[in-house]
Description:
Number of strands: 9
Largest sheet: 5 strands, parallel
Distance between the termini: 47 Å
Strand content: 25-35%
Low-confidence stretches: none
Amino acid sequence: MTTSLPPIVGSWSGGKDSCLAFHRAVAAGHPPVALITMLDESGERSRSHGIPPVLLRQQAAALGIPLITGDASWSDYEAEFILRLARARDEFGAQAAVFGDIDLQAHRDWEEMVCKRTGLSAQLPLWQQDRRALVEEMIDCGIRTMIVSCNDTLGPDFLGRIIDAQTVADLDAAGVDVCGENGEYHTLVLDAPRFAAPLSVQTGEKQLHGHYWFIELFPA
């Protein structure tokens, strides 16, 4: 007798780790019902990755599921995220939330806490797995991503690069975590096995904000 797995909402950054975690959870049999992405106070860019909402909506449309967004400062991020989890539960029937963290314990503790507050279980399909193996799995399974922000150690030349074997080797040679788990870089998913069609993206200027580089992104 087959036991059905709980429907999931994906905590969706628009980047590679959240996509791979979501991909694994769906492949394991969890029905996907929605994605959640938190934006900055202006609502014009996603937190950390700096992705415009129009591209996040295109990703959700490619997956055929709704996107739940919320605007938040860091001070009210937790409260706003909990509200979005509750909406995923009440409106779309989510019973679990999927996160792409690999080994930052403080992140896991927070995710389990906010899920507990809303009666959801927290799923972390990538937890404590080898980072290089995860990047290679992402490439091999057809998740195609582009570096859209990075620290000034890597510098602007890495912006706009597709994550492939050569880029992984160059990240390794630069002395950074090849997964970017410590925030060295962030990505935008352009295509994935469950996308109905790939994203078509144009890039613009490279901009330095503090110690972090971003590249402008537009739908093509």
